[in-house]
Amino acid sequence: MNPLLSRLQPYPFERLRQLHAGVTPNPAYSPISLGIGEPRHATPQLIKDALIGSLAGLASYPGTLGEPKLRQAMSDWLARRYGGLKVDPATQILPVNGSREALFALAQTVIDPGQPGATVVCPNPFYQIYEGAALLAGAQPWFAPSEPARNFGIDWAAVPQAVWEKTQLLFVCSPGNPTGAVMGLSEWELLFRLSDQYGFVIASDECYSEIYFRDEPPLGGLEAAARLGRHGFKNLIALTSLSKRSNVPGLRSGFVAGDAALIKSFLLYRTYHGSAMSPIVQAASIAAWADEAHVIDNRAQYREKFAQVTPLLAQVMDVALPDAGFYLWAAVPDAFKGSDTAFSRELLALYNVVVLPGSYLARDAQGCNPGAGRIRMALVAQTAECVEAAQRIVQFIQSKVH
């Protein structure tokens, strides 16, 4: 067996299952889960129609590079979304089977484990695929500290020079999971300067980019590069997906875009890995990337949901509307002595609501676990169910305080 597998930690949802083992939820309440970030809004009909209408494609082997019309649809979307951004569909875009598998595979392509101290820098808290990808590529993850006062934005300047010198890959997530923090142009400028100085690749995870609550949409990595005159996107790969944007997590469809040299190497890796996208998924993806009406409607549903839920929870918790994403990142009240795990267990037992302990989404690093004492709530269900969950959480906290 690959000895590196022993370095992997249990996935957060397996830890949650173990935490809740032996807990009997109160049968007086119907179960509501805010634990897993799985979109539950309806899949747009136009995507279903495209899937059904393309079944003849099952008779052909797909190419790893994808159909030209698919890559053109992706390039067109980037141009519409990011103010005329120019990305060559022939050399700077590659379809992937969801951003999760691409994040993992990119690390296997980029990392040279033969280099002493090969390092991957990750945000903290973070999406656990970053850590697993680094470890199985033979590298060591280093967790960059976050700043609670800045909505847990990452303090990139706090990463020591000795770490940057050994860094081969940097994972960034904007909008962030679980905090919803969005990186600004000055942060991108700093990271590009560091990448130029030390030669590492930046993987920009942007799967939450289309769910936002401000008037201005989140800045993307490619967009930031173009604004700063980096039109070749040197050492930059952006990753995105239809899962959250179009409510099709089961479709497993997304794409990577950026530095043509990196895309070429990634294509070679994926050709051997057998990562070609199904023809019927390609057809459905073309339909999805070409349509914006369903995305606007999806965003409106989230905005309405957060507008109702956030003020309810803010009565009893330290929680605020995020910049983007579909999570609330809330502090556990003092009555629970900072224990996010105790909060999660008791909430399930008494009110049949599942939330994810924040400590499961972070690592003990630089002297602390930045997720400790917080919980992540995924507002993915319908509005009425999310409001009901919030009302129960309010009752739960008030019962502990009074």
Automatic annotation (TrEMBL):
Record flagged with keyword Transferase: yes
GO biological process: lysine biosynthetic process via diaminopimelate
Xref: SUPFAM superfamilies: PLP-dependent transferases
UniProt keyword terms in alphabetical order: Aminotransferase, Transferase
GO molecular function, one term: pyridoxal phosphate binding
All residue ranges annotated as the Aminotransferase class I/classII large domain in the record: 32-393
Matches recorded under Pfam families: Aminotran_1_2
InterPro entries xref list: Aminotransferase_I/II_large (IPR004839), DapC_beta/gammaproteobac (IPR019878), LL-DAP_aminotransferase (IPR050881), PyrdxlP-dep_Trfase (IPR015424), PyrdxlP-dep_Trfase_major (IPR015421), PyrdxlP-dep_Trfase_small (IPR015422)
Keyword Transferase: yes
Main enzyme class: transferase
Domain of life where this protein originates: Bacteria
Cofactor: pyridoxal 5'-phosphate
EC number: 2.6.1.17
PANTHER family according to UniProt: AMINO ACID AMINOTRANSFERASE, L-GLUTAMINE--4-(METHYLSULFANYL)-2-OXOBUTANOATE AMINOTRANSFERASE
UniProt protein name: Succinyldiaminopimelate transaminase
Species of origin: Polaromonas hydrogenivorans
Upper taxonomic lineage: Bacteria, Pseudomonadati, Pseudomonadota, Betaproteobacteria, Burkholderiales
